[in-house]
Amino acid sequence: MVIVGGGCMGASVAYHLARCGITNVVLVEREPALGAGSTGRNAGGVRHQFSHEANVRLSLESIRLFEHFEEEIGYPLDFHQDGYLFLLSSPASAASFARGVEVQTKLGVDVVWLEPDDVAEHAPGVAVDGVHAATFCARDGIADPHGVTQGFANAARRAGVELWLDTAVTGIRILDGAVAAVETTRGEIATRTVVNAAGPWAKQIGALAGVVLPIEPLRRHIFIAQPPSDSGWIRDGVRTAPTSHIMVIDFETTFYFHREGPNLLFGMGDPGERAGGFDTDVDWDLLEHVEPVATRRLPVLADAQLTHAWAGLYEMSPDALPIIGPVEAVGGFYVIAGFSGHGFMHSPAAGRVLADLITGRDPGMETAPFRFDRFTDSRLRRAAAGEANVV
Ligand SMILES: Cc1cc2nc3c(=O)[nH]c(=O)nc-3n(C[C@H](O)[C@H](O)[C@H](O)COP(=O)(O)OP(=O)(O)OC[C@H]3O[C@@H](n4cnc5c(N)ncnc54)[C@H](O)[C@@H]3O)c2cc1C
Question: Which residues of the chain fall short of a pLDDT of 50?
Fold first, then answer.
């Protein structure tokens, strides 16, 4: 079996296949190190607060594993459960989140509805002008993507999985409608099963097998700011930013931030950015749009010093839900991609589900929302609702 892509998703699939006793597996990654794609550029956010039940279920299982990562995977994980706070500034988003809270609560998530006046208790320094309501889940948090990827990959390797770094997949040979071999820059691997875990590049890997995957890369930026003075995020004895690792998200604008060591990490989507390109250069002009929003919500950022920035790629699907499972038209071709900006947090459960589907086990959860054919079968397409809480 071949897994294409050594990000959190490929590593999780490798680990979960090994747990199912499948160790005749080669994970192929074109970069010299694991986690060099989106996994190495993400904000580390982990949350239960999704609108779609299927996503909440992925979160529940994944967060349980993050909480016990070292015991179960044998690798220490930096994981702070200081919560996610969503600020809602329109009646429409408040109504949509109210429905989401119902879904989450029904599934056992402890999420609370807050009034604007309650926000300061969780997130000092945040200005709430224009905010109608907020939601908070204390078990959401921030985890280290590198630790998760290395943890899964090391455990898979110990079980016998081979990791081929610095090796690109260049072709997929199909015989009689089924996978026969994978061509790489280190030679061909005869196999009847391929897992496409190539993140934002998943469409390209699909094309090698003659499959058109509706997954597009979309550039997203992250900025790092240092506190304005030696007294950190405190001015005149008053906190100007949270001391915890709470993730605060201004849902209408997609501006978000959390503590990153002594600094603040923040980001915001660019409505002008077009999906489809692989450029990950930083567009500093974006700051013109980010700054007014950021300093309105977290005024101390006006005095903070921006130290650096980077950009990475979301892997967007049309309904913001992933594809996890087989592509029926090509025997042995599986996909785990299209997580639309929240794949890191779902990598533990998604990898487990795919390993179960590959090995013919019962995945124990409804996988219809993740099927590839929801995009090819018009009856399924009409029936399905996507994920609304995309940041
Ligand atoms: C700025 C930003 C912030 C984000 N914040 C969050 C967050 O807070 N929480 C969250 O859950 N998610 C977040 N995400 C999304 C998350 O990073 C992704 O969903 C996740 O990392 C996808 O993992 P992956 O393993 O599928 O993809 P990747 O990590 O991109 O891995 C795919 C791998 O495939 C390899 N590859 C591609 N083509 C080939 C080939 N031909 N041969 C061999 N290898 C190949 C690539 O080199 C790459 O390493 C964020 C993303 C970005 C860009």
Answer: none
